[in-house]
Write the structure tokens for this entry.
Amino acid sequence: MKFDRKKLTDQELLSFYKNLLLPRLIEEKMLILLWQGKISKWFSGIGQEAISVGAALAMEQDEHILPMHRNLGIFTTRGISLHRLFAQFQGKKSGFTNGRDRSFHFGSKDYNIVGMISHLGPQLGIADGIALAHQLKKNKKSTLVFTGDGGTSEGDFHEALNVASVWQLPVIFMVENNCWGLSTPSDQQFNFDSFTQKGPGYGMKTKQINGNNLLEVYHAISGVSKVIKKKNEPYLIECMTFRMRGHEEASGTKYYPEGLQGEWSKQDPIDNYEKYLTKEKILTEKAKDQLYADIKAEIENGLKLANNEDTIAVSTDNEVSDLFAPFEQKNLPPKTEKMADKRFIDAISDGLCQSMAKYPEMVIMGQDIGKYGGVFKVTEGFIGQFGEDRVRNTPLCESAIVGTALGLSILGIKSMVEMQFADFVTCGFNQIINNLAKTHWRWGQNADVVIRMPTGGGVAAGPFHSQSNEAWFFHTPGLKIVYPSNPYDAKGLLNAAIEDPNPYLFFEHKALYRAISEEIPEDYYTIGVGKARLASEGDELSVITYGMGVHWAKQITKEEGIHADILDLRTLLPWDKEAVSETVKKTNKVIILHEDCLTGGIGAELAAWISEHHFQDLDAPVMREGSLDTPVPFAPGLEQNFLPKDRFRTKLKALLEY
Ligand SMILES: Cc1ncc(C[n+]2csc(CCOP(=O)(O)OP(=O)(O)O)c2C)c(N)n1
């Protein structure tokens, strides 16, 4: 293996050596601990260390790196203490996740590392967001994100590279090509010779390097990093290497063809670098022995400290409260009494516009939201007011954009993502469920993101433009969900959601956009999240509902002459238990109504809770009505039959007479 030191001094070459050796010796120790059952799982990077170490040495300490499961060398080269690292592996307090996540599944703000989630690909979109944040802040920084060759088959790879290229973001996409993804060889993973053929397809420069050659990796990344941050452009680097051990220790390597490991062992990054340093008379046998001994002692010391720590104390309160970044909402009233008549859609647009003015760094992203103003025109005129940097038309890629939003949040920038229709959130689902919702709880990084969800049926738009999908998220700890039913609440709740540094889904019913209007304050104001509101008062029974359900309930109770409490939940997560209790205790009869399908809907949770906590207060069974348990049909007659309105009328009367 040929090494080119360029201008590196002997001292630098030696310190590189120490960095290279450290992850190898840690791993050797970890394998012993694994065999002894003292750590849970290990993804080996043996044979691939030059990539992590070379990369971390090449990047500036304040530039972000987003590593994967074989990149121990990133963590060690960034200088994380071995005590903390081992505590992390053992699920102890001094680790990075309070025992909540294992191995390399953590990030650290202090070290500018953003750890992976098991799903691999979502890392890539987050890097786009970090790079975008640097670009907007005019920091000249590059961002480095890793993927394995297997992970490149995920849609996230395509989406993230495409966004980075279209937006010209200084991201280095590092494909660590170790030729296998678990037991699957490259030729069953993709059908091309090299990733250097892929870069140009994305409009991106690319190069292939020997990932086992420390200096080649270091020089390549240093060089690329310098160029891309100057020019503001992404770059794809393919590092050729080989995974010497199994995918993880338990799965073995039986599927490797005979002799392959032997061939690659000649390319070992440490052996080769050691030989080079020895040949150049930079490393003596004595210094090498000393270094091995020192590192081994350092490892033992780190382990001792981690071993001496108690197992983590269990506190249910901490587990629950750490879901969200601390935030105390203060209701901000409007500064003046000026009122204006606003339709539902205008109120949303108004709130968004005022929040954009209030938070000068805030970015909004979505398909066609730029000059076109969005398909529903919520952002019409925003570009003129806030500019193209902050009002960003996105390619058609929900996953990368939600990931980008998280990346922005990592650098302290708020963002709002508009789903063109709530239905399309399925394509960004993973980022919401596994990144936005879990990151604060896992390693303390908040996700300051609001996702706007134009939702609901009644507009003859068929199964893919009409769905109510709030229940998908209701079941996910770590998210907040608001769902206003009127212009006043829409503006105040959107502002409140944007103010809160935690992730929100903001549902807005499309059929209400231009159908209702009311006088609302012209100024900025917020409304308390988690607070329901009585939309009308009565004592015969209670209807608990939200969104379009509020309007149906009002209309039908009026037509039937029923005096009902109609409780508009407004926030679905966390929902207002107190207000629910109050109305149940008052009327003793309750029906829950929602547009979403009945089975597993939010009504199911509420009904169960009311039955458990208010059994004594009830004069009738808790009733529910929702849409049919089918997809949303297109033809208006079928859709009306799907929606719960008529069935609700029947059930309401039955409840009254019970
Ligand atoms: C979405 C998803 N599918 C499958 C897996 C299981 N899995 C974990 S790692 C892996 C192989 C990844 O291969 P590659 O990206 O080449 O990285 P390597 O392990 O070779 O470093 C697989 C299939 C997963 N974690 N996430």
